[in-house]
Amino acid sequence: MSLSAAGGLGAAGCSRVPDDGKVLGGSLLDTLRKQGSVKIGIASEPPFGYVGDDGQATGEAPAIARVVFKRLGIDDVEPVPVDFGALIPGLKARQFDVVSAGMYINPVRCEQVLFADPDYLMLDSFIVRKGNPHGIRTYDDVKKKGLKLASGKAYAQIDYAKAAGIKDVLVLPDQVAGLDAVAQGRVDAFAGTRITVKSAVESSGRVSATEPFQPVVDGAPAYGAGGFAFRQSEKNFRDAFNGELLKLKKDDYRELLRIVGPFGFVRADMTDLTAKELCG
């Protein structure tokens, strides 16, 4: 689906659009309820968010979005696919109403958007040649052994690698391109999340996934916790969404796991971390 115009996505009525970066209450939720639909920005990254064969948004984040938005009185969820690196710019440009792509929450992004609390916490993993001939387990291994590393466009793993002293990281479009690069010997490993790496290698006889591990930056854990992003002018919208998300986490995440389980998420991927904690 092509990027759609931003018509109807601003503040209701003739209200002036808030200055970029100014946190206000916002009335977008009321507008969306009246029109009965919401546009979600997604990137083509299974299993977090992507467009299925039927043209509908699918994956972990869109599945959560459908449940939450229905409870908020919005029945229709329309996907707007863009490159991952265009998600925040597209949100700020009002090309869609919310980022629904499992985006990692970090202080840099928190300066640009409002995040709901994370709906998952993910470890990292590498795509390597079958049998992991170089014995790669962490970013430090890649650095110490002088190996070639790749990762995806705008992936947090690029920063993790650089923090470990890896200066040159080959940036590729996604994990599928990463798999090919490893299989062809152009790189020794491709860094991604546990779940994207696992799904990429499942049907390949040429590569395998390393054991998941916790990245460390400057001696502290770098938490890969992802969530939904909203414009800074729409705090009311974020808060309403967050309230429904927290209800899904009750009873040991039972309802949330029913929604995200079909996409490979398990109890160990659930988290009680908050956006405030992750934003620092």
From TrEMBL:
Residues 37-259 form the Solute-binding protein family 3/N-terminal domain. Keywords: Signal. It comes from the Bacteria. PANTHER family: ARGININE-BINDING EXTRACELLULAR PROTEIN ARTP (PTHR35936:SF17), MEMBRANE-BOUND LYTIC MUREIN TRANSGLYCOSYLASE F (PTHR35936). NCBIfam families: ectoine_ehuB (TIGR02995). This is Polar amino acid transport system substrate-binding protein. It comes from Streptomyces achromogenes. The lineage of its organism: Bacteria, Bacillati, Actinomycetota, Actinomycetes, Kitasatosporales.
